[in-house]
Design a protein that fits this description.
alpha/beta; eight-stranded mixed sheet; 10 helices; 8 strands
Length: 259
């Protein structure tokens, strides 16, 4: 299949690698910055472009791996051709394509991506949606080649999945940022926490997260909580976050006991 990528960022880089490994022809890579387009395009012998007018209309599938605001800008300028256009967003409804192109859908891989770390796609859940059964079948075939976890998801379901992913991934990582800063202030290494982090994530693979909660908040250990707040007294942002999350945990588990 001939495929064009609109976007040259973290997701586009990883998805293009996965697709290319299954002998598909990546014909073009678009980015607003020609340098970024060229950096990704050269890996797949594709043509780099930085204007929508240069899109190769011979591609069968156009994958828009772009930020949400960029989708709103780019989609009205897409060529009126019979190829399929898909975006990769979790929070953007499929209807964003309506009235702009004839054949469209969504190809949403649920994973966190960085350009410098290529993720193996075989276990990545891929959620699909399309405006016709024929279009769905086409993108399902492609998705099935790179992942064994492919399933349909409506725009509403995908939005819920995306919100949950922000909690599970983005918010969690920001907690690691806080932990790292706290340790650095005391000339200690984040490496000390890695076995704990590994075990924490191993537990949620086996049981429901609510059953795995530990720590001073769930025990309502007020003395320890106050000690923690004291040591964070010179770190206003992290102290506020600690207090807020602690209060939420206490409230959540008190509610559970009431029920």
């Amino acid at each position: 299949m001939k495929i064009a990528f609109l976007g040259a960022g973290n997701l586009a880089t990883n998805l293009a690698h996965a697709i290319y490994q299954h002998n598909h022809d990546i014909v073009q890579v678009y980015s607003r910055t020609l340098e970024n387009a060229s950096r990704l395009a050269e890996k797949f012998h594709a043509q780099p472009i930085n204007t929508i007018q240069e899109l190769n209309e011979q591609a069968e599938l156009y994958i828009l791996a772009l930020k949400d605001d960029a989708l709103q800008e780019i989609i009205p300028r897409l060529p009126d051709i019979s190829a399929i256009f898909v975006h990769t967003g979790g929070s953007v409804p499929m209807s964003i394509f309506k009235g702009a192109v004839k054949n469209y859908g969504v190809f949403y891989p649920l994973q966190t991506f960085k350009k410098n770390r290529i993720v193996g796609f075989s276990g990545v859940p891929v959620f699909l949606e399309a405006n016709s059964s024929e279009n769905y079948k086409m993108i399902e075939e492609l998705a099935g080649q790179i992942s064994h976890k492919v399933q349909p998801a409506s725009s509403d379901d995908r939005l819920a999945i995306h919100v949950a992913a922000v909690f599970a991934c983005n918010f969690t990582n920001f907690m690691f940022v806080g932990a790292d800063e706290i340790l650095q202030k005391h000339n200690l290494s984040f490496q000390h926490l890695k076995p704990l982090i590994k075990e924490t994530f191993a537990k949620v693979q086996e049981q429901a997260p609510a059953e795995m909660q530990t720590g001073p908040a769930v025990r309502e250990d007020r003395q320890t909580i106050q000690s923690h707040l004291n040591i964070l007294s010179d770190s206003g942002m992290w102290q506020n976050l600690y207090r807020f999350v602690t209060d939420m945990i206490v409230e959540y588990y008190n509610r559970e006991h009431e029920e």
